[in-house]
Amino acid sequence: MITIMKKPIFTLLLCASGMMGLQAQTLTFKTAKFKVGDEVGYKSPDFNATGWRDIRVTDNWDNQGVPADTRFAWYRIEMRLDKKMLEQSDLKEYLEFDLGPIDDADEAYLNGERIGKTGGMPGDKGGYASAWSQPRRYLVKADSKCIRWDATNVLTVRCYSGNHPGGMFGREGVRVRVPSRVDGTSFAISPQKHADKHSIAVELKSRYASSVSGTMKVELVDPETEEVVNTLNQKVSSLREGKPVKVNVEYDPSRMFLAKATFTEKKSGLSITSSYQPPYILTPPAPATPRFNTTDIYGVRPGSPIHFRFGVSGERPMKITSPDLPSGLSINPDNGALSGSLAKAGGYTFTVVAENAKGKAEQKFTIRVGSKIALTPPMGWNSWNCWGLSVTQDKVISSAKALIEKGLADYGYAYMNIDDGWEAPQRNADGTIAVNEKFPSMKELGDWLHSEGLKFGIYSSPGDLTCGGYLGSIDHELQDAESYNSWGVDYLKYDWCGYGRKHATEPDNQTVASFVRPYLLMERCLRQQPRDIFYSLCQYGMADVWKWGEAVDANSWRTTGDITDTWASMYDIGFVRQAALQPYAKPGHWNDPDMLIVGKVGWSANLRDSRLTPDEQYTHISLWTLLASNMLIGCDLAQLDDFTISLLCNNEVNAVNQDILGIQAKRDIVDGDIQIWTRPLSDGSRAVGIFNVGTEPQKVDFGKYLKELELEGISSVRDLWRQKNLSTSDLRYYIPTHGVRYLKVK
Length: 746
Ligand code: GAL
Hints:
Radius of gyration: 28 Å
Bound molecules: beta-D-galactopyranose
CATH superfamily of the largest domain: Aldolase class I
CATH architecture of the largest domain: Alpha-Beta Barrel
Number of helices: 12
Shape: globular
Mean pLDDT: 94
Low-confidence stretches: 1-21
Strand content: 25-35%
Number of domains: 5
Number of strands: 46
Largest sheet: 8 strands, parallel
């Protein structure tokens, strides 16, 4: 599935409600007749479709018993179009077919005449192009000959699915109406920053050629007090397709606001409303003086090369040194990169000093040389959620540079992981894995990352092919592990994918042993290498991987299918599927609920802002840190905005994720839409996430849960996002829709 989204996010068209005008009648269809295959005759209204099956147009065909490998299929809906529909519209110009989004490309016909097309199909000039997320709204002129007024009409939709899932899946179904003027209008609202001023840009557009007039109103509301803090009224005249109206409204980015935009059409009195939450920054800026932000403990096996970067924020230039560094190790004072190795098992504690023009900071640091690595969850970046298969060596380098320049490396983000898409179509003659033209030199890439104190990650599959269709490691496991070692790889994500075909043929494929086998095999190959390679299992949680991940010495295991940047996906993966997995995480072995979906993502060359609202993003990072999850950023680091940086670089929030006790949070309370997850921390305190997973904001009295949480008599309450101590007596908090109050309680 390839994502194509060109529009600004968060635009929510709420209603078109008439005060005194006419409301256009809408015909809604939730089912259709359906046929797999592709014949040109299917579009004809006279085609004999008896024998076509029924299908819901509100859900992908894969979920309705249609084989997942179906490529072409047709939908057919018969409808009577009443001429009265025209009278109900103040525009009377079009008939509009709203088909919702379609996986992946479509062509729609009314009574055999083509009325619209989105995406590309094989055989088209540009070939296949997925447009799975794009809503289809096709307009037909009301006087067009293809409309049969006061008679039966046939809508047919030809669909092509390049990859499962396939077909029509708009939850609202197919909607047909003669729209009013206001129905063509919509808002697109996006955040802007010029110099140091933050504002939201509100754009009112119309899809129709005929001009619309009226008034537009934008209000900034404090959602907690409902106080309107700013109102802007704007007269709108001659709004039409290609001639939008734009206004800018300034706001204070350190406060939570809701922006409400309304447009009321002059003649009909009909209006549309849209609401939008601008990003707001809670994390206080870091001081100019040096401050250590990385965890003070690091695990390594005897003799393995060490690559670590002390994460220190503060003004540059800065020198990072140690007066008592164990022999065998060295620090690059300019970037804080620690390197070398320690042959003997044991604990090595030393002092690290960071100094700049504004001051000096010191931290005791311990290297534990033994059998365990990944004593805290890995932090870093992975190419998949942003670039998908279009990742290149240059993109990895530019992302690593941005990780350093934008200060993320100062907060412990260190792994730079290439996901799928780096292998050549064929192995070398000696059976070793070859890289494709996008990766001129893995060894140089690894060396450069290490010189910066960063770590190098790579991806493969135990099967013949990866999910993206690139070469997997089957029958070449040891050779591949050796190649990784020679390139300096520190992390392997090993993704089941193509192995499924082999597994299906295995006589014992019902057993857990059959799921363990390919992972154990690679583990043995990795352990023969003279370096530590973080072993990340990716098989979506099959056969309860959390129960045996540690036994194959995995450092983390994906617990679910792929995440995407929607509340539904994040809620299901984070809140529903992790709740029972708490006992399985521990230092060295972590549950992995998949990568972060903040910033600009897109799984392809086309990137867009995450579709999570700002509050959903606070919830995402809070929950992932509570869950002791891998913290792998999945966005384009070169395009990081201030809000995303503030989410990823809050040292107190990250400290929960990196806490050395390594105990994952438990879901202690579920009270309607309120969920409280807590985790004990090494300093004796407890991290507490109070989440509102409902669709309405709530005022929560945390005090009433203290007994059940065994937190009576608390002596301090710290708001981790705001980095502020709060009252210990008044524990009532406003928690926005899908939002969180993240605390550390003693
Ligand atoms: C999926 C995996 C994703 C990504 C993708 C690459 O199976 O879950 O995280 O690695 O394959 O094709």
